[in-house]
Design brief:
The chain is of the alpha/beta class and about 650 residues long. It contains 18 helices and 27 strands. Bound molecules: acetamide.
Length: about 650
């Protein structure tokens, strides 16, 4: 009781201090804004300000080193303050307590964070929880904590709070396609650094596809000697002409096994598992170009790693019709020896319990022509091509299990019969995941409709063109557990960044953030607390933090949403915005509108002879969106076709 009384006295003293400092340092009055939203956060009066020397007290366990090193580095770099780590200090600025028994409801990754006027205490059952408590603490500090160099004249204050927090799902992933374009070890580390801020714990690396094989397999050296390189192109991937026969193939790269070990270690120190994916039996042109004997198709020895030229006919839907055979031959025993060698090395390199073997979009038209496949069908009593793929997947699952790992694939592995223990990653909507869960299989949800962050996040006139759009507000409605299934089988979800149109790291970041915030919150925070308006405000508060951290992001949520429709025989243009309230100003006369131009209030009819509409959003007197210009002819082309 006396203790509480003393505390109240201090609080009242601090209240005065708080009012005083609020006038001087605006950041202390900013609303608390954390992504993903914690389970419970109670704010109290006052704040704690980092002292001239920061002491981290973390006990004696060596398990704590990744968290203490991370925290020390973050604070020392941006504040310029000396930071010392003590195992048993009588006084500490930040105390990290690993208390395995105290609160089992926090699980493996939950934490309690207490900020009082005396200091900061983070408690968790396991070290990962302490790491997430530290991430929340970072978001409570001023944005300059994200700076890569020391920042002066900042009051390093944290509001007094009590936070209890734990994740909804154990699988909180981002997939990074390093095949379509290669990203270096430092770039992958940079991606990991960004994702852990938002409590992601899984990085799925798409390591092999038609455009490149990205991991050294010592027993199969040609995979990287030949398979890791194509001819460089920029522009609209998928439309390029095939490179000339003598054109140098020097674009790409791969991770050596030492690189992979370094990445796995780096990720582990940040509580991230790496899920390796080798995409087979389709998407395998880089492997076939390296070892043509793995193909069922004569002439495969002429095949080259794809440089973005057309190799599939998608006009008939799924599966595509291959124009050249990018599949491994399921009727060739050498293919299973090949898979065994790869999976042996993967299993040694990646400690994570799953190995992902793709299985998506496998064309069957060359298999249908193959005598070897026909003979296999007869021998194994396989009635169609889906059963042929299923035969392949079941054999690959056995290889994976023989190395002590679990087998995972995209939802196409359901077709023709799911392998007995396979985990399914559902991408063509949720239905594959639902079907697999109903059969008792583990599922990770990553449906295109909500989680494909290679899609455009705004109007095609301002984004790099891809075949579909996924805006932030839609991403935020991602709900991984469908009503009809046993929630225990849904391990979680992930967003997928395919990189056909992503040529560099700045673009990878642009595509990932802020949609990665929306997926992070869908995977961490309680379903009942999700709220778009509140989330959108918190997204805005994150942007200056990303700027400090030099991480790129898309401001697309500030731009107008353009919808065209036909009224009688004229086209009307309806404009709206994802976040409100914003004003939209427009012109049809080719000049750049500002807030003294007409303000949008109702659907627009295009004036006769107008060539383009230009528009920009404002918040009050401040321009906030990007200037958008769309030729009227492009808008006309967007109209639904007359029947
Ligand atoms: C996929 O997007 N083809 C899994």
């Amino acid at each position: 009781m006396q203790h509480i009384f003393q505390h109240m006295l201090k609080l009242s003293g601090l209240l005065f201090g708080c009012l005083f400092s609020a006038a001087t340092f605006s950041q202390t009055t900013k609303p608390i804004s954390i992504i993903p939203q914690p389970v419970s956060l109670v704010k109290s009066v006052g704040q704690f300000t980092l002292p001239a020397t920061v002491i981290i007290n973390a006990g004696t366990s060596s398990e704590m080193i990744p968290v203490t090193d991370y925290l020390k580095n973050k604070i020392a770099v941006s504040t310029g303050k000396p930071v010392s780590i003590k195992s048993n200090a009588s006084f500490s600025t930040i105390k990290l307590v690993l208390n395995k028994a105290e609160n089992p409801s926090l699980g493996k990754e939950g934490y309690q964070l207490s900020v009082t006027t005396k200091g900061v205490v983070v408690k968790a059952n396991q070290v990962a929880g302490l790491f997430y408590g530290v991430q929340t603490l970072m978001q409570l500090l001023p944005k300059e904590i994200e700076s890569k160099t020391a920042v002066k004249n900042v009051k390093w204050s944290v509001p007094c709070v009590q936070v209890t927090d734990y994740p909804r799902f154990g699988w909180r992933g981002l997939m990074f396609d390093v095949s379509r374009h290669f990203f270096t070890v430092p770039e992958v580390k940079q991606y990991i650094d960004a994702m852990v801020r938002y409590k992601y714990n899984l990085l799925h690396l798409h390591l092999a596809d038609d455009e490149g094989w990205r991991i050294e397999i010592k027993s199969l050296p040609r995979l990287t000697e030949v398979g890791a390189y194509n001819a460089k192109r920029v522009g609209y991937f998928g439309t390029f002409a095939a490179p000339a026969a003598d054109e140098p193939r020097n674009y790409g790269g791969f991770y050596t096994q030492e690189d992979i070990k370094e990445l796995v270690k780096y990720a582990k120190e940040r509580f991230v598992n790496i899920l390796p994916e080798i995409d087979v039996p389709g998407h395998s042109l880089a492997a076939i170009a390296s070892y043509p004997e793995l193909s069922c198709t004569p002439g495969a020895d002429q095949y080259k790693v794809r440089s973005g030229e057309v190799i599939m006919d998608w006009s008939h839907g799924q599966p595509p019709i291959a124009l050249i055979d990018n599949t491994l031959c399921p009727a060739n025993e050498k293919v299973y020896e090949f898979m065994d060698k790869i999976i042996t090395e993967l299993a040694q390199l990646f400690p994570f319990e799953y190995i992902h073997l793709g299985g998506d979009e496998c064309p069957k038209n060359f298999w249908a022509k193959s005598d070897a496949v026909k003979a296999l069908m007869q021998k194994e009593n396989l009635k169609d091509m889906e059963e042929v793929q299923s035969y392949f997947e079941k054999r690959v699952e056995k290889i994976v299990e023989s190395k002590g790992k679990k087998f995972m694939g995209w939802d196409e592995i359901l077709q023709g019969g799911l392998a007995p223990n396979a985990a399914v990653m559902s991408w063509r909507g949720m239905k594959g995941g639902i079907q697999a869960a109903k059969m008792g299989h583990e599922v990770v949800m990553s449906p295109t409709d909500f989680a494909y962050i290679d899609y455009m996040q705004g109007d095609p006139s301002i984004e790099s063109k891809v075949y579909a759009t996924l805006r932030l507000d839609k991403t935020y409605t991602f709900e991984p557990v469908p009503d009809s299934v046993d929630a225990k089988l849904i391990k979680g979800g992930q967003a997928n960044l395919w990189t056909e149109q992503v040529y560099n790291m700045r673009r990878a970041e642009y595509m990932t953030w802020p949609r990665g915030f929306a997926i992070a919150e869908s995977l961490w925070s309680p379903k009942a607390t999700k709220n778009w308006t509140n989330f959108a405000e918190r997204v805005e508060n994150q942007f200056p933090r990303l700027e400090e951290a030099e991480i790129n992001y898309a401001p697309s949520m500030y731009d107008p949403i353009v919808n065209v429709s036909r009224r009688d025989s004229t086209m009307t243009i309806a404009l709206s915005t994802e976040i409100k309230p914003l004003d939209i100003y427009y012109s049809f006369d080719n000049s750049f509108p500002d807030r003294f131009y007409p303000k949008y209030t109702q659907p627009l009819v295009v004036p006769k002879e107008a060539a383009q509409i230009k528009m920009i959003t404002y918040r009050g007197k401040q321009p906030i969106g990007r200037m958008m210009s769309i030729p009227i002819a492009d808008l006309t082309a967007r109209l639904p076709q007359k029947k």
